[in-house]
Amino acid sequence: MSMVEQNQGREKVFIFDTTLRDGEQSPGASMNMQEKFRLAQQFVKLNVDIIEAGFPIASKGDFSCVKNIADNVRGIQVAGLARCNQKDIDTAWEALKNGENPRIHTFLATSDIHLQHKLKMSREQVLELAVASVKHAAQYTSNIEFSAEDASRSDLDFVCTVFEAVIKAGARVLNFPDTTGYAVPDEFGAKIAYLMSHIPSINKAIISVHCHNDLGLAVANSLAAVKAGARQIECTMNGIGERAGNTAMEEVVMAVRTRADQINVRTDIVTEHIHPTSRMVSTITGMMVQPNKAIVGANAFAHESGIHQDGMLKNRNTYEIMNPCDVGLSTGTLVLGKHSGRHALKDRVATLGYTLKDDELDRVFKRFKEVADVKKDMFDEDLEAIMMDEIFRVPESFELLSLGAMSGSKTLPTSAVLLKVNGEEVKGSALGVGPIDATFRAIANLTGTRSTLLYFAVSSITGGTDAQGEVMVRIEDNGKIVLGQGADPDIVTAAAKAYLNGLNRLEYLKHKG
Ligand code: KIV
Ligand code: ZN
User: Fold this and answer.
1) 323-359 per-position pLDDT tens digit
2) Ligand 1 atom with the shortest distance to the CA of 246
């Protein structure tokens, strides 16, 4: 059966992506303006219905990101988050107002725990403030979403009262978040069914759900809610987000598609863009996807055991419930080599979801040729690493010009580094426990930075001793945590690049406001 036939007669569930807002709340996953913009464009390709671009009042940087996306991205609704107060709502609207179909998303907690300990407000006051805030937002737009924060731990009749009142005030989407990831599927589904039957004006609005994954149940809870009548799912790519993350978009979308017989709804997601989007999110945020992660993990479609491989050769249905091509999984086959031309590279880059300007393509092509000279097989992952390194970096206060490191069983590890620091060439050397330690010490001295290294990981981007090394670091300075990434066939150089990338991100955050 074709997808068109399968979807006939099924109600649509709206996909609200909050990778750029709740996803960015993952520790160390902060993204800059260009990165958010690039992801927003990718979400358009995925055909997401709404993207939450940020929380405009949170910082000048957040405001500019939301504005940039609302002003320039078309074919998608852009939402901005606002607490229930006039200043937040006015600021959100200021950022959103040039959007094609902007949405104000305002929220207020409804649980007694939040009322007593956080808001210090009575239920009556919360009800009044929610209504006043939605009315205030309604001066600007009719596209208003109201979220009852901590709804799953709130008194359900109180939530019904608030939802009914905010519908009358102009809200068209009522979001029921499981803010703490506390709910379990049967209970969560039953709560949604209760809302559907106890809010008199429910036919004027849709119920949305926003689940956190603290008990690993975010996807299951979202699906239970949909079965009970919810028609918007809030989610993030790769499930990134606050603490244990949010509902993983790729999982919930593929569950709806694969088990339409049970769930009986559809989404409009172009699933073939899932894998490139997942890769883009992990390369931008540095939040690697675990190999056994459903849908987008490296092993999600790998069959290891002999019995399974035998079955697969006889008929793929024996062990495969989804076609890897449906999630846009690259075959992992060799794509380009050192004799490939600029045109082939441009095509491949486009397939991976990237649109490069001519000068950017020139830089990637030059670097591609350099790497292809030392590494004969070039895979998609190699290209992504090159693009991250060459194009998609934060503005660089610190740039690596060259480095030479010495190490061995009888040598004192030393590293000599030449950097550009705010436009000026500086050089220096340091000793260390190993060549990477020596390099990091030299870089810290030359840049005058005092960050703490929290995490360091090296992996090879693809197999073989000629593979590019990819280094990921997490560093902290003054309470700010960032990730840095670098790739190079030489792993000490890859480590230096990752460290400098992290330091540049810290510098960027200092000035972002
Ligand atoms: O988890 C939550 O409750 C939220 C709201 C702001 C929707 O992120
Ligand atoms: Zn959340």
Assistant:
1) 999 999 865 444 677 788 888 888 888 878 788 899 9
2) 1
Q: Indicate whether 7 belongs to any domain.
A: no
- The answer to whether the beta carbons of residues 237 and 292 sit under 8 Å apart is no
3-class secondary structure, 106 = strand
What is the residue range of 385's domain?
330-390
CA distances from 188 to 157, 195, 220, 500 (A): 15, 11, 9, 45
Report the separation in Å between the CA atom of 432 and the middle of ligand 2, taken as the mean of its atom positions.
43
* 69 Cβ contact list (under 8 Å, min separation 6): 20, 36, 37, 40, 51, 53, 78, 99
User: Are 373 and 490 within one domain?
Assistant: no
Listed residue (345, 332, 296, 382) closest to 46, CA to CA: 296
Residue to substitute in 83, 133, 147, 180 for testing ligand 1 pocket (most ligand atoms within 8 angstroms of CB) = 147
Residue nearest to atom 1 of ligand 1 (CA): 179
Task: Decide the pairing of beta strands 469-477 and 452-460.
Answer: antiparallel
Q: What is the pLDDT of residues 117-153, one digit of tens each?
A: 999 999 999 999 999 999 999 999 999 999 999 999 9
- Tens of pLDDT along 63-109? 999 999 999 999 999 999 999 999 999 999 999 999 999 999 999 99
This prediction's pTM: 0.83
Residue 26 lies in a domain: yes
**Domain total of the chain:** 4
- The predicted pLDDT at position 266 comes to 97
Answer whether 22 contacts ligand 1 (Cβ < 6 A): yes
Instruction: Indicate the SS3 state at residue 127.
Output: helix
Which range (189-198, 214-223, 385-394, 430-439) has the least confidence?
A: 385-394
Reported as type and span, the H/E element at residue 329 is none
Tokens of 485: 């990434």
How many C-beta neighbours within 10 Å does residue 109 have?
Answer: 24
CA dihedral 143, 114, 207, 238 (to 10 degrees): 90
178 CB less than 6 Å from ligand 1? no
Q: What is the C-alpha to C-alpha distance for residues 248 and 171, in angstroms, rounded to an integer?
A: 26
Residue that the structure tokens 């040729």 belong to:
369
Q: Are residues 417 and 362 in the same domain?
A: no
Give the sheet arrangement for strand 414-421, strand by strand: 398-406, 414-421, 424-431
Taken in order 82, 84, 85, 89, the sign of the CA dihedral is positive
Strands (E), 161-225: 173-178, 206-211
Task: Say if ligand 1 is within 6 A of residue 210 CB.
Answer: yes
Q: Which two tokens stand for residue 434?
A: 């190993």
Contact 37, 70 (CB under 8 A): no
